[in-house]
Amino acid sequence: MFRGFFTLYERCPNCGIRYEREDGAWLGATALGYSVGALVAVFLGLIELRWRPIGALGLHPLWTIMVVSLLVTVPAYRPAKGVWFALLWLYEFTDEAEPSADAR
Fold first, then answer.
1. Residue 26: which residues within 8 A CB-CB, separation 6 or more?
2. Which of 33, 38, 89, 103 could form a disulfide with 99 if both were Cys (CB 3.0 to 4.6 A apart)?
3. Contact between residue 87 and residue 28 where contact means Cβ atoms under 8 Å apart
4. How many other CB atoms are there within 10 angstroms of residue 54's CB atom?
């Protein structure tokens, strides 16, 4: 599915389904990636409120939670894009391609 860390192939090398979409089609994938970071921030915030481990380490809790959440968002982007494309495929928002000679 992926040609580079953020870039996709135009079509699947195996089945030929088209990955590249019009502008804005991957907004849902971005939202899913950011949601992962937000969940981590909420989780760390609740842990900090209950047990205060970040403050006990001498770190500023707000800045630490923010940095960790942003760092988690970057690696979450690829799986989020895969999940988003799976949802697009499941609900038939993808362009079906002619089967390739190898797939016949």
1. 81, 84
2. 103
3. yes
4. 19
